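User: I'm designing a mutation panel for DNA repair protein RecN and want to avoid disrupting the core. Could you give me a predicted structure to guide residue selection? Please restate the sequence first so the numbering is unambiguous.

Assistant: Good idea. Sequence first, for numbering, then the predicted structure tokens:
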Amino acid sequence: MLTQLSINNYALINQLSIDFSSGLSIITGETGAGKSILLGALGLVLGNRADLSSLKDTSTKCIVEAKVALSSYHLEDFFKEVDLDYESETIIRREILPSGKSRAFVNDTPVTLSVLNQLRSKLIDVHSQHQTMQLSDNSFQFTILDALAKNQARIASYQRGFLQLNKLKKQLSKLEEKQSIANQKYDYNLHLFKELEEAKIKVDEQEILEEKLEKLNNIEDIKDNLSEALELTINEEIGIQNLLNTLDNRLTKISTFSKEYQTLSERITSVKIEIDDIVSELEDANENVDFNPNEAEEINDRLQLLYNLQKKHAVSSNEELLQVFEKISEEVGDVESADEVINLKQKEIDDVSEKLDKVAGLISKARTSAIPKLTKELQVLLTDLGMENARFSIKIKATKNYFSNGKDELEFLFSANKGGHFGELKKVASGGELSRIMLSVKKVLSENTQLPTIIFDEIDTGVSGEVSNKIAAIMQQMSNNMQVIAITHLPQIAAKGANHYKVYKKEINGVTTTNLKQLTTEERIVEIAEMLSGKDISDSALTHAKELLN
């Protein structure tokens, strides 16, 4: 709950700090005194947008700080989720700098406005007159019904599955889109795949074939040069082989005379052996040189096929061509196995949907069971608030659609008059009736949720007399379960508060400022008497004020 609010340099406020306690607290003040400024400052610290117009003195920063006691509200998990240090007394601070920049802190840790707004939804409900239009909002109507149905845990479970279902559906959609695109290319890709598969490409094949073709294209030169080389080596008169034999014989004869001749003889023997080997290979090469026009044509055809495929796929080597083949093979395989992948994804969706259906069924059943209780409680409360003919028609309809909170559609209709037709709240209820309905709804919610604080901003507008006493009684009952702060202009409600604060304006050195103070018992009597009779307080007004307080 809110335990302290400190405001510096905001609108008409120089500086103020006020403590709040549990139970029902009342804030009163003349019209224009600055009650809306207090709510503006509180809204600012809870995440509302800010601008320089919020600063009273534009040369220095504005600071609004709220202390909230959290120990009874089980918010530790939320603080972990948003990566904040949990403190049983948490301090929320908002600063607006003269530059117009805004900063927010929770326990001195900088936070975004998104986190601040999430925290706000768990701490304080500020209810003003215009918020009665929430009553016609279907999601808010579900919130009321689900609070009574104790559906919070079921809906949390459902929403986890709902997120998973949407994620799976997106994945399926992408798979189907990918398959559709792949199917359009499948026939062409299959043609390319078969063409490359039939080509039986090898990495080093091109270089080998190009070398073979080069030999075949120069077969005459090769034949002539091989023949001449053989002649140079094996000619009986001038051939290298015969000359080496002679040289070898000469050196062998003197090799025994010294190591020097022996080494020379051995080297010549070695050269002779190498030449003999070369001659043998020259003879084989010469015998094997044979021009085969069919072979040249086959090689030419094969190389042309490789060149054409490389050009077709915009690559320059067989290695790159094989990479293309692998990619096309995968694409063809993906299409051919896509049905299986899609079927598996659809099965995942069906499994999650089946589980969601069960949870949605439990949610719907709990809602249906809670409708009579909600209808009765609201009608009893509204009877006390002077709307004895108020009736509700609340119906649940199960659908096949998945919504964020279940699979139900909700019809939430109202009739204010006896024998009147049921219709949408915003169409058949007046502003005053909507205020009383909202108060009744908040009373029901206070008994079925763990919201720490609710602030009513003149929810009593348009009512008086006995109804105002009933409104005060309802607020008192609500304050047994939560902290209630009511801004009011009715003395009957003001008298019911455990604590009473007054907003007032004061002029200092020609400058008007807004202030807030907690009233003593005597000050409360005077304030309530003034609310009863105006500035000229009569004795009877003072007496009446004391009676109301007692």
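For picking mutation sites, this is relevant: The CA atoms of residues 28 and 506 lie 16 Å apart. Residues 318-384 form the longest helix (67 residues).
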